[in-house]
TrEMBL record:
<dbReference type="GO" id="GO:0016301">
    <property type="term" value="F:kinase activity"/>
</dbReference>
<dbReference type="InterPro" id="IPR011994">
    <property type="entry name" value="Cytidylate_kinase_dom"/>
</dbReference>
<protein>
    <recommendedName>
        <fullName>Cytidylate kinase</fullName>
        <ecNumber>2.7.4.25</ecNumber>
    </recommendedName>
</protein>
<dbReference type="InterPro" id="IPR027417">
    <property type="entry name" value="P-loop_NTPase"/>
</dbReference>
<comment type="similarity">
    <text>Belongs to the cytidylate kinase family. Type 1 subfamily.</text>
</comment>
<keyword id="KW-0808">Transferase</keyword>
<keyword id="KW-0963">Cytoplasm</keyword>
<keyword id="KW-0418">Kinase</keyword>
<dbReference type="InterPro" id="IPR003136">
    <property type="entry name" value="Cytidylate_kin"/>
</dbReference>
<dbReference type="Pfam" id="PF02224">
    <property type="entry name" value="Cytidylate_kin"/>
</dbReference>
<feature type="binding site">
    <location>
        <begin position="38"/>
        <end position="46"/>
    </location>
    <ligand>
        <name>ATP</name>
    </ligand>
</feature>
<feature type="domain" description="Cytidylate kinase">
    <location>
        <begin position="34"/>
        <end position="250"/>
    </location>
</feature>
<keyword id="KW-0547">Nucleotide-binding</keyword>
<keyword id="KW-0067">ATP-binding</keyword>
Length: 261
């Protein structure tokens, strides 16, 4: 497995909580972190991926881990609303995600010997509609956050764009670049509806609003925390959105960031 691919075993092997910028054991320097948060459909994943490629960085889509966990809970019949049941699953599964190139997500379920490729399955409505049930649990979030920090620290990459809901505030509050990417609900629904066949824009809008409402009960990703740069892509096309992220990275005062450019 190359440095472009990360294996994240059960969170038990993750390091103790700390800054994502903490150096990995055995690695001389920690990767530069670009932390990006935002609501559903704001463009976090696609824009972050394109920006990461241009920067020569990896990309860690933390939502994919929450989605994979929800998928695993649904597959195994674990009660998504019971924190102990989800924690037990977290201790027994294996999760892998690629950090470069096309995203690939695999899970080894407890007791299974072979991995399941869940890259497509975790994007289905059955998972999107349930994922907030597993992400609501504080201890689950702590374990996944440790896993994210371990993946980044062990990546061997010069930098990683890490995106989600609480990256700028909880996972990597000390990252040299922190962005909150947003767009109006109508624009987000319009973009998302363009990807889905057979689902109306109105239904997509209702789903987005419902998921954001559940998720904001746990973390605030609608308002930039102090020091976080707001990038509103409502009136930006895809290319302009990528450039807006690159501009924030290039404007960052950190010597470490400048050195990596
Ligand atoms: N500025 C933009 N202009 C046009 N389309 C965009 C723009 N930004 C993103 N998109 C498109 O909007 C859709 C949603 O983007 P993306 O999946 O990256 O959002 P997200 O914030 O990661 O969503 P989720 O949190 O639901 O995973 C994609 O089809 C993407 O290509
Ligand atoms: N840092 C994060 C990332 C995600 N979540 C939860 O996962 C869901 C799916 O995330 P997407 O980015 O793929 O839309 C999201 O709705 C949250 O419930 C999270 O809590 N924290």
């Amino acid at each position: 497995m190359s440095g472009a691919e990360s294996t994240a075993p059960a969170a038990a092997s993750a390091p103790a909580a700390g800054s994502a910028a903490a150096p990995a054991a055995g690695s001389a320097t920690a990767p530069i972190l670009v932390a990006i948060d935002g609501p559903a459909g704001s463009g976090k994943s696609s824009v972050s991926r394109a920006a990461a490629t241009r920067l020569g960085f990896g990309i860690l889509d933390t939502g994919a881990a929450y989605r994979a966990l929800a998928w695993a809970a649904l597959e195994t019949g674990a009660d998504l609303d019971a924190e102990p049941a989800v924690l037990e699953l977290l201790g027994a599964w294996r999760f892998d995600i690629t950090l470069r190139g096309e995203q690939r997500v695999t899970v080894v379920l407890p007791g299974a010997s072979a991995p399941s490729d869940v890259t497509a399955a975790i994007r289905e409505h059955a998972v999107s509609g349930q994922v907030s049930r597993v992400s609501q649990h504080p201890a689950v979030r702590d374990r996944l956050n440790d896993m994210f920090r371990a993946i980044v620290a062990g990546s061997g990459l010069p930098g990683v764009v890490i995106e989600g809901r609480d990256i700028t505030t909880v996972v990597a509050p000390d990252a040299p670049v922190r962005i909150l990417m947003t767009a109006s609900p109508e624009v987000r629904a319009e973009r998302r509806a363009g990807e889905l066949s057979g689902v109306s824009r109105e239904q997509v809008l209702a789903d987005i609003i419902a998921r954001d409402a559940k998720d904001t009960l746990v973390v605030d990703f609608m308002n930039p925390a102090p020091g976080v740069t707001l990038v509103d892509t409502s009136d930006l096309d895809f290319e302009q959105s990528i450039q807006a992220v690159i501009d924030v990275v290039q404007a960052a005062p950190s010597a470490a960031v400048e050195e990596s450019m």
